[in-house]
Write a structure and sequence with these properties.
The chain has a single domain, classed as Immunoglobulin-like (Sandwich), CATH 2.60.40.10. About 15% of the residues lie in helices and about 40% in strands. The chain contains 1 helix and 10 strands, in the order αββββββββββ. Strands 1, 2, 3, 4, 5, 6, 9 and 10 form an 8-stranded mixed sheet that branches.
């Protein structure tokens, strides 16, 4: 009898916790759709990732996949630092014999990025990034 009670109690406890674990509270910051294109030397970036990082690194970052030059994701409002990453298989295998994937987007567009975007709560958040494989030195 006690075991049956304990099972029912645990079952209802798990049911009560599911909305919390699933994040159904809705208390997070509002996010807005962001879409656009990423081109490198006039050609669409085939596969990659685009990241929108809050200015001052405070707030919620977001990321989206780039496919055939197009991306879409949801981001919070405000000024963002944009980082773009993409890799492709090198002709030279890795030391362990496995495929060797190398980044082909210059650091000026990712780890050292100066790209920015302003995400707005109203209006169109369609962005285009025209990157160059040879960035100019300052």
């Amino acid at each position: 009898m006690f075991v049956g009670f304990l099972r029912r109690y645990c079952f209802f406890l798990v049911l009560a916790a599911l909305p919390i674990m699933a994040g159904c509270g809705g208390d997070g910051p509002a996010e807005y759709p962001v879409t656009g294109k990423v081109m490198l030397d006039g050609h669409p970036v085939e596969q990659g990732e685009i990241r929108f990082l809050p200015a001052g690194m405070q707030g919620t970052p977001c990321a989206g996949q780039i496919s055939n030059g197009n991306f879409e994701c949801r981001a919070t409002e405000g000024q963002k630092r944009v980082e773009i990453y993409a890799t492709r298989e090198s002709a030279t295998p890795a030391p362990d014999g496995l495929p060797n994937y190398v980044s082909y987007i210059p650091a000026a567009y990712n780890s050292q990025s100066t790209l920015t975007a302003d995400i707005k709560p109203k209006g169109d958040n369609t962005l285009t990034f025209n990157l160059k494989s040879q960035t100019e030195s300052p």
